Amino acid sequence: MRRPDGPEHGLPHSLLVLGGTSDIALATARRLIARRTRTVWLAGRPSPALEQAAGSLRALGADTRTVAFDALDPESHETALGKVFAEGDIDLVLLAFGILGDQAHDERDPARAVQVAQTNYTGAVSAGLVAGRALQTQGHGSLVVLSSAAGERARRTDFIYGSSKAGLDAFAQGLGDALHGTGAHVMVVRPGYLRDGGPFSTTPEAVATAIELGLRRRSEVVWVPGALRMVMSALRHTPRALFRRLPV
């Protein structure tokens, strides 16, 4: 049922990160802890990096715990996430796992390409459905899905990664429609590439800032930086023959 003392202005008391070592996720967690978040779960493959990330958030004053989670093992997702929700309501689930892959190498190694697709799309579909159902059951909460501007139109240089993010983006939007009116909310975040030096690149901290603002506004889609929205809209409608010649 809906909690009467829910987060003010959309900011969470409790946070579950799927992909607990993600730079964007940790920047977001730090920002939210500085506001009002007090309980954080970091879900990921057990590793020193995951424990180090948890320790860094504990040092900021958050009650931080870890839970074993593998995007490539969908059969375990219900159990892994169920452990977290059994401990109490979760105000925000941040789906932040994913891999970029190596386009040039992966084109010659289909098994590697499939791993990119399974991590970024198949694993996210499974985890997203489990998380969405849990948020719907408790009657409140947000699911923030890290998509990518690359999913708007796949380029020659990244079409394996881009296609996986395009599928994830479409799934997340559809899940948002399915959950509309239940108290649960889905927000898709489409950042540019991180620190690639390009004019529309971004940083984990900038994405974290945009996520906070999106939660306050209860947005459904957030672009980072915001100017990417118009740029990618133009590229999406560019004739294919011309698009192939663009230096993108």
From TrEMBL:
Assigned keywords, A-Z: Oxidoreductase
InterPro entries the UniProt entry points to: NAD(P)-bd_dom_sf, Sc_DH/Rdtase_CS, SDR_fam
Gene3D superfamilies, A to Z: NAD(P)-binding Rossmann-like Domain
Alphabetical list of SUPFAM superfamilies matching this protein: NAD(P)-binding Rossmann-fold domains
Keyword Nucleus: no
Record-linked Pfam families: adh_short (PF00106)
Domain of life the protein comes from: Bacteria
Family recorded in the similarity comment: Belongs to the short-chain dehydrogenases/reductases (SDR) family.
PANTHER family membership: 5-KETO-D-GLUCONATE 5-REDUCTASE, DECAPRENYLPHOSPHORYL-2-KETO-BETA-D-ERYTHRO-PENTOSE REDUCTASE
Protein name: Short-chain dehydrogenase
Taxonomic classification: Bacteria, Bacillati, Actinomycetota, Actinomycetes, Kitasatosporales
